[in-house]
Amino acid sequence: MLISASLSAKTKEYYLTLQNHVFVPSEIVIPANTKVKLVIVNKDDTMEEFDSFDLNREKVLFPGKKGHIFIGPLPAGRYEYFGEYFPNTARGTIVVEANHVD
C-alpha cells in the first residue's frame, strides 16, 4: 500500500506572515535534510513577492491571501529571503540546523 503510506506521511509546515511589509518571524529554524512546507500569509493590502536566491524560490503573494512553497531537503546553513517589492523591510532568514528538534 504505497499510496496510503505516502498519504499518512505529512510534510512539516512552518508559518510566515507578511504584515506592514515585514516578514514575521524574521527567522525560522528548520531541520536539515528534511523537506518542509513554508506557508506564507500576506496580511497587507498590497501584493508582494517572496524571493530567495539562496533557496532558488520565488512566490507571488496576493493581498489578503495565503501561499506556500516547499523547500529542502537542505544542508545545515543560513538561507536569506526578501520581498521583491519592499526589500528594505521584508527580509528574513531560514536557519537549517543539523540537530533541530521541534
Q: What name goes with the CATH superfamily?
A: Cupredoxins -  blue copper proteins
Question: Number of domains in the coordinates?
Answer: 1
CATH topology, which one? Answer: Immunoglobulin-like
Gyration radius from CA atoms, angstroms: 14 Å
Describe the structure.
This protein is globular. It has a single domain (12-97), classed as Immunoglobulin-like, CATH 2.60.40. By secondary structure, the chain is mostly beta strands. Residues 1-8 have low confidence and may be disordered. A hairpin with a 4-residue loop joins β5 and β6. The protein starts with a helix and ends in a 5-residue tail after the last strand. The strands form 2 sheets. The chain has a 5-stranded mixed beta sheet, with no helix packed on it. A 4-stranded mixed beta sheet has the order 2-1-4-7, with no helix packed on it. The longest helix has 7 residues, at 2-8. Helices cover 7% and strands 51% of the residues. 21% of the residues are buried. InterPro entries: Cupredoxin, EfeO_Cupredoxin. This is EfeO-type cupredoxin-like domain-containing protein. Residues 4-96 form the EfeO-type cupredoxin-like domain.
